[in-house]
Specification:
Order of helices and strands: HHHEEHEHHEHEEEEHEHEEHEHH
Distance between the termini: 32 Å
CATH class of the largest domain: Alpha Beta
Number of strands: 12
Number of helices: 12
Structural class: alpha/beta
Strand content: 15-25%
Family: Belongs to the LysR transcriptional regulatory family.
GO molecular function, one term: DNA binding
CATH topology of the largest domain: D-Maltodextrin-Binding Protein, domain 2
Protein name: LysR family transcriptional regulator
InterPro entries: LTTR, LysR_HTH_N, LysR_subst-bd, WH-like_DNA-bd_sf, WH_DNA-bd_sf
Radius of gyration: 24 Å
Pfam family, one: HTH_1
CATH architecture of the largest domain: 3-Layer(aba) Sandwich
Oligomer: single chain
Length: about 300
């Protein structure tokens, strides 16, 4: 295999487009190239690597096992190339930026975003504070923060929505199966969006409840759920490795969706660093493109 083949971004871009779009025709339209050009570039990549990357038929285009492996590296290389080009083209950002983030978003979203942001904007000094959305917004209104990234029930936010998810019940279904017994809950403190939505839904459904665990951190809530002590209302994306209760079978009421939003201070809207950070957050919130099936999966569907 030609080791330099992986660094030909033109070939990798065509390969990634076919893998994402699911066909050579759609990939050509996305790249504003002819279908034959895209086919030739993918073929050149396969020749250089010495292995087929796609299984082609009259009906389907599926990634081979080698194609699946290469796709992960190709996506990383293309992203790094875009980041490098953007950093070289943009003026260097400087100054201070204070950011408030709700605990669950801080755990699952912030590490990768801040790592990439600091790598691109080393002269920006960040001050990150973690807490409840309402508390952080109050701090921002008092001048203590430039920006808050938090949660809100759809339609109630004054901020800019950058993502969202379903709000679900996480926990052991046996804790909620008896309608005559209070539902044991693990909740964030007062003023939490999840807490308010859950208690309002339970009140409308006429279900009794008791708080058996209150924690300001997502890890504390998850620990109570994993231990079988309580059920908890959480955004679906934060229920990894936790059992999720279906409202229609558990006897618990359905919960509303939740928005992830950015709340701007008056001064932050004019800060280039704040705008760049929010753009990075929005990018991180976008759902990943659906992957083509592997060759084995494609054969199993025929």
């Amino acid at each position: 295999m030609n080791k330099l083949a992986l660094y030909d971004l033109h070939l990798l871009r065509s390969f990634e487009a076919v893998a994402t779009c699911g066909s050579f025709t759609a990939a050509a339209e996305q790249l504003h190239l002819t279908q034959s050009t895209v086919s030739q570039q993918v073929r050149r990549l396969e020749v250089r690597i010495g292995k087929p990357l796609f299984s082609r038929s009259t009906r389907t285009v599926a990634l081979t096992k080698e194609g699946e492996v290469l796709r992960g590296y190709a996506s990383s290389l293309l992203q790094l190339a875009e980041e490098g080009a953007a950093r070289l083209a943009a003026p260097e950002l400087q100054g201070d930026l204070s950011l408030g983030v709700s605990d669950d978003l801080a755990q699952y979203l912030l590490p990768d975003v801040l790592r990439q942001f600091k790598r691109s904007h080393r002269a920006v000094r960040l001050d990150v504070q973690v807490g409840l959305t309402a508390t952080l917004c109050e701090r921002m209104m008092a001048g203590g923060l430039d920006l808050v990234v938090g949660k809100a029930v759809p339609g109630s936010a004054t901020g800019e929505v950058i993502g969202g998810d379903r709000l679900v019940w996480a926990g052991d279904t046996r804790l909620a199966e008896d309608p005559e017994r209070p539902v044991p809950l693990a909740l964030f403190p007062e003023a939490c969006v999840y807490r308010r939505a859950a208690l309002e839904a339970l009140a409308r459904a006429g279900r009794c409840w008791e708080v058996v665990c209150t924690s300001p951190s997502l890890s504390g809530i998850q620990a109570a759920v994993k231990a079988g002590l309580a059920v908890s209302p959480l955004a679906a994306c934060f229920t990894r490795d936790l059992p999720v209760l279906e409202a229609r079978t558990s006897g618990l009421p359905a919960l509303p969706p939740v928005d992830f939003a950015v709340f701007w201070s008056a001064r932050s809207k004019s800060q280039p660093a704040a705008r760049q950070l929010v753009a990075a957050l929005e990018h991180a919130m976008r759902p990943a493109p659906a992957s083509l099936p592997t060759l084995t999966e494609a054969r199993g569907r025929r």
